[in-house]
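Build the 3D complex.
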Amino acid sequence: ATIAVMASRQLSETKLRRRSMSTSYRLPPLPWFGMDIGGTLTKLVYFEPSLDNAEEEREKVAHIRKYLTSNVAYGTTGLRDVHLEMPNVSFLGRSGTLHFIRFPTCSMSIFIDMAKDKNLKDLADMICATGGGAYKFESDFQSRLGMSLLKLDELECLLNGLIFLAERHPLECYYLPEPDPSRSDCLRQPYSLTRQSDCYPFLAVNIGSGVSIIAVRGPRDWNRVSGTSLGGGTFLGLCCLLTGCETFEDAIALAERGDSNKVDKLVMDIYGGDYELFGLRGDLVASSFGHMMSVDKRAEAKPEDLARATLVMLTNNIGSIARMCASTQGIDRVIFTGNFLRCNELSVRLLAHAMDYWSRGSIKALFVQHEGYLGALGSLMELVDPDSINNAYFTSESAQTASDDSQKMSSRKE
Amino acid sequence: NTSEYCSSIAISELSADVLRDLPTAQRFALDIGGSLSKIVYQSKRKWRKTFVVYDENTDSHLYSTQELEKEADCLHFIKFETRLLENCLDFIYDNLKGSDGRGLEILRNSPLRVTGGGAHKYRLAIEAKLGCVVEKEDEMTCLVRGCAFMLKHIPGELFSYEHDSSPPCCFADELSDGGEPFLLVNIGSGVSMLKVENETTFTRIGGTSLGGGTFWGLGSLLAGTSDFDELLEIASQGDHRNVDMLVGDIYGSESASSVHGLSADIIASSFGKASKADCKEFSKPDLLRSLLITVSNNIGQLAFLYASRHQLRRIVFAGFFIRGHLLTMRTLTYGVNFWSQGSVKAYFLRHEGYLGAIGAFVRGLEKDRRIGVLTGSWAENLCTSSSFDVGSWQGMAALELDKRKELTDFPLLRDRLDYVPDTWDLSQSCQQFQAAFQSARLNPPPSQDLSAREYWLNCFEASIDRHQQRAVLSQPDSPSATERGEAFRLAYQNFFKEARANPVAFGQLTVRRILDVQEHCLRESGFPDPFWVLKREENEVALDGLQSRLSHLASLPSADLPAALIRGLLGGNVFDWGAGRVAELLAEHGKQFGLNEAMEQLQPRPWLVDDLDAWTSRLKAGVYTCAIVFVDNSGCDLLLGVLPFAIDLLDRGVKVILAANHGPALNDVTIFELRALIRRVGSFVPRVADALSSGRLLLAGTGSSSPCLDLRYVSVEVADACRQEQVDLVVIEGMGRAVHTNLYAKFSCDCLKLAVLKNAWLADRLGGNLFSVICSFEPAAAAAVG
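Done.
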């Protein structure tokens, strides 16, 4: 295993050199996609090249471009996040626009039909994909579309995407100087995180359906230190069960209006005030959902309150695990990513506040604008490396740490 | 209202048993939880006890025995549903008032200590009802105190969940010495993580709001019922994989294992499938199981994170959430093992539910400066405590602890932490003992030795009638003896029933444990010493033969003496009424069966373990200062076997401590009988009288009343004597003390273990035959190497 790891690290360095040498090798054929197939959502990053150099665009490529860029919704479930669109990006020596598209993973079959319909396979025979779904759907892509998936390591893609964005997009990374869960107008302060700055080490906490926690010490020096199955999927699942809502957006909207104190048992509910012996304030949550064994309290709790309590419980728990990992690793910056934080200002505030409160200001919580698309972007970046076709990460150690969640810690853990 | 009616019935039914000593209650403490509450109270219980009366002027008998009632302290633990708190208080009030009002007076003398989440809520109600002052005690402090108390006094309190074992718990005493700090995780409504350094020093290093209240509250929402135990019951029927998103769901089940070597069953996202619009129908069992696993896994992970952050290698889980529920313990253990890769170990406590109550009780004594009440040791009453049922919340329904003499570690054990008293774990596999057997030069037993349990349970159960008979006969003047004999039989039979169904009903099942249960059931039925007549008879017969035995030994050439003494001692050890085969022989031949006949039964040399030559040459080297001899049976064993051996040691200038049980057990000699006997011997053997008066021969009580010997619990008297007299030789005699227990105990000084295998099965298991001999001489130096 050690030899394989060494090889993959050398490969990565070669790859980086090639990128900086611009177009000294043949570019992959258009269109350029990167995909991240998660447990709940599939994320697609599409690079739309500018056509100002009078280049001849193949008809089928143009067809796809027009379809993607002229719509914001695809089928019944696909959506383009217009607010995240990045124009004037230079990528592989070309300038163009990055588009960010998502659809539920359970609609993968529809996506494949659409790709077939648009004759995607005539343009390329391979798609760069990461996430567990790259494995799960590989044979579907092969049999129904005649395309192969280049399966890429999830966490490496995530980190590559993160650094790529942080370097090109000055407002990508931000923090809340005064996090207050009750105020929706918290100031967002940009945070400079680039390869040149001393951005290492940091802890990346990716909240998708589940949560992965990665300690990052250098450009290719990282390991998965922990994770939890209590993630975005838990939030949505519980909210659907408890409130009957059907979408993530509805669940968040409910949570924004709710009062978790109707549901949770606070320290003061048990001790009549602060738990002075241990310095625990009376208004802290002692037991999530701790009031709900009472029939009367259940009758009083509204769906909003339940959604809010679910959100508070999960963000506190993720914050708690992240904080323990950060302090065990001696790291004082934690970057939260993942689609759980998409359009989820409330969770950002809750996480920022929890980190600040429980670490007594010693650990900084950072967030990114393109929270859910880092992996897909990272996989797009792999498109450039022709070697990668033969050198995917099957054999590397990092591949063994690549699943979504709850798996063995990397042996590199210190 | 029906439920109220049922409640008071429940309380009064309870009263017959666990609340029977309320009228003599001295002191209470209460732990009021969200669903369950616990009371601990201390009472004075009256026991029949045997006293040896020694009168040199009577010549009819060596000594006489009187049975008297004696008061002893007892701690009672009861749990009940918090919704019945008021009924329970009424019941207590009535009982205390009924006992001529003195009970109430005592109660009102000092504040009632109350802990738990309900301490705040019910304070005024309690004060109004009982007319006493309620003082709230901090929950965590009580928990830590209670944990220390249980670990100190109850052997086998601690266990780990081992999924591959059956039953899935393994008992350990690793924390009992209070050495290394550990993490105590209290899972109540919320979770607190405490770093415990010793019984009074601890820090809260963290916690989480995802605790028992989360399972209870969320579970109530999902299932529409608020009964905690019902929720657990429903959860145990479900399959979380229908609700949780697994690694296999994301990667495809084949990729997960073939590409990543991961189990496809690992949970990637708890409740991750519950949001899928296409499958809205989830069963309650599936949802609750997923919830239980979510909460337990998360606590296990956080506990690991806190433990590793603070370099703690042991985690003890406590709190109402656990209540012996298998799935909960399994998931907590899994979480700790998964994240720590086995470097941190998870433990649970048999009486976890009572930690808060006993902690509050102890705190009360400290504050009232009455800590003297606690000095001494408290032993689990195996007859009145109800069994611990893993996998059922009802496990640990009642607990009673009897005050005993203060007990402590035997100071000459080489490694207290390595010491395991019992040779066979009848609860499950004997694997852990393989190495120990080899070091004792015996054939290791098969690794999965379930037949051992079956054999010993049958063997002891078959002896019930014999013991019942003897017990009744021991009290010819008591009209109630027959009835109490029947009560003994029922109680003891009940134990066998439970032990067959659940081998860990009383902690680890061992031969020692079974014998303890037998003694407890006899004592509880008012038979403190069924063998007293027989013992006296045997002692008198043996005493008659002592002079001629000593003369015979004196006539031997001195070179042959050590071997003759050992043979005599082993011959004497054949006289064991606890062994079925021997009891038959003795009944058959009566007084015709003497020491010589017994010695003829012994296996010819070389013995099964034969260190006679090594021992002889070591003895002749004259290196010893003082020997302690743990004696076994009355009669021939003590007087014709052990005593000549001891006299020889005295002749060689070696001091001797004869250590005998404090309480009666089978036909084992007690310290009180021993004193009477040795004084009588002194009257015609001047050497013995001299040694006794000059302090070269000491008689000590071990603090035990068992035919076995647990060297973690010996009297302070014995421990102090060993230190003061600089004991450098330990002699352990008999099957109970040297084979069933201590077979591979290692000492920091020389040790001689002597036993005759009077049980065919046991002999066979150790690779010998009936009446095979173990004469194991273990020099201190070799012990240090091995």
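Residues 1-9, 12-16, 391-396, 429-437 of chain B have pLDDT under 50 and may be disordered.
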